[in-house]
Design brief:
Strand order of the largest sheet: 3-6-7
Strand content: 5-15%
Shape: globular
Length: 433
Amino acid sequence: MPSNGGGSGKKEGPEVIVTKLLDPPETDAATKEREELLTVLAELAGRLEHELKEVIKFWDNNSLDTEHMGYLTCVDFDGTIYDTTKYCALQAQQTYIYAKLYNCTDVYHTEDMLETAKLGGEFLLRHAYRASDGRCFHSVSREGKPLSLRPNIISEVYFVMAFFELHYATKQSNYISRGEMVLKTVLAWIKDSGSLNSYGMDTSYSTLSDLGHVLRMLLAISEHNPTKLRQHKEDFTYLTKRILQHVQRSNTVVLETVQSSGEVEGAVGRLVNPGTVLEVGWLLLKYSLIAHKKELRKQVMNLFVDKMFSAAWDPNHGGIFSFLDVDGLNPTELTWNMKLWWPVTEAMIALIMSYKMSGERKYLNNFSRVFDYAMVHFREPGHGEWYGYADNEGRVTHTFKGGPDKGCFHVARCLWMCARVVRDVVAAGGVEK
């Protein structure tokens, strides 16, 4: 049987409980307190990096398809492959993660890492893209035979991210040319409701999730090429404006679904998606920093991070609620009170970035609460990687580490980004309040 990290929210395992580490003893000597905190932060960065190593090792050992290229992402807790279907968004996510780590770290800047990234890139080039309309498939067979296509832009967004990152690593023109083609298609879709509707999408509403996907994509392709920031200045402005339209009720809540005139009636209009709000929050924080938009940063930190985390954190059992109803009614989403892996990762990134930008200890304390929760309930030390799904009380409900919606992306990205932020704080000698 797999090791189950679940239990009540009060459980403490053998793992390091970061909350205790981040509560240094009181002292009158500010210098000593700063030095103690920096020591603790250095230890935290090391722990995050160790966890990342375990995550990457799990996928390296179990998911690489050297026979047909790409990755086998339906992986049980112990590495057993239980389904060979390949979900194109997950193929692109894993490609992106390997290429990103190759490009941005010394530890993973190896030929093996690059070849593993290209394993996914070549599969995507040959099998994920439909040239007739610029769409990317939702799923294909292990060999690459098309199986399904969905009316959303998720596969396309990650396709673009993967190929821009691969191009930076390899300088191969086929990656950037295909990435640019799909990028233009995605930007046209998000602005032209008519073209979206032709693919079966409901364009009468605006969803925060779709806007967040595109913002993530634009920021990703701009990281190695600052000219993209200028080239897509109007796109960033357009997306930011559209995202802020989801801020409703006198700037007190961020709704998942709105229309041009404001709120949508009924349960769909009252729905709040905490994981998406937190991710869009840290994406906007990142954008506000590079675009020098201080007022946007304040607004986002207050509403998308502070208020969202306070509302979404379960005070009884810990973890982030999957969905909320803005009026406090029972959300119609059946998984609303489950605790999923990805909102936890988005909260960790949003909180540690807010700490670095503001210097306020509350963000660091809340980060430690979330990281503690993940280590106790999602981490499975026997084989590496995290479980993805737990019930309201934190008991693991699905023992697989990878499936149709979970692959090598959220956990790895979170651990790498958080470790990098913490290392930056330590190198700077702390944060300014």
